Amino acid sequence: MSEVSVIHDIGYQRYGGARLGRWYAVRSLYLHGLRTAFGLGRSAKAKIFPWIVVGIVLLVAVIVTAVRSQIGQVVLAYLDVPTSLSALIFIFLAIVAPELVSRDLRSGVLPLYFARPIRRTDYALAKLAALISAAWLLLAAPMLVMFAGASFGAKHLRDVWTEAKDLGPGLAYAAVVVVVFGVLALLVASLTGKRAFAAGGIVAVFLVTTPVVGVLDFVGGDTV
Length: 224
Description:
The chain is an all-alpha fold. The chain has helices at residues 22-37, 44-71, 81-84, 86-107, 110-115, 120-152, 157-189, 195-223.
């Protein structure tokens, strides 16, 4: 009895649209990571923590701005914002970094990402850029609220310009802070697929490194 081969059409079709290439994929990965950091496009539960943090930093900025308008003195300088909000930033990074990479490790989707067209470095840099951008926005938002309050209360245009010159270094310092700690957070998160372990490891690293940075900063200040 001869065997007859049969080809079944189960509905698969080739993709016939435009192939947007590697950089579009990297950009999409970055935007998806940025949205994930703030829980956008996800369940209400995923939005609770990031938006609580956003609410806290904005509340701090509003209080600082209101007090400054009443007493006429700077309560919190822009350069001091990253230090004053460092605990919130550390917690934010410890929660978001595992969401960006540990979840992918646990679900085993990395081979799908690396099939084509993005490279391994593209994936890592897109995730890092999303994490850094989210943390920087978290620090920039209260600074901009403080700047807006100071600008509306300024009597002369030159006062607004002076305020803007103070804001610039504050934003730059915030960028340096989030780059350093963002790299550490993503590195630790990439070592495990379990988000709880990753978050705990990130917090532990921050607890160890923060006093060291403080000591070096103190010694450096004395030397200068």
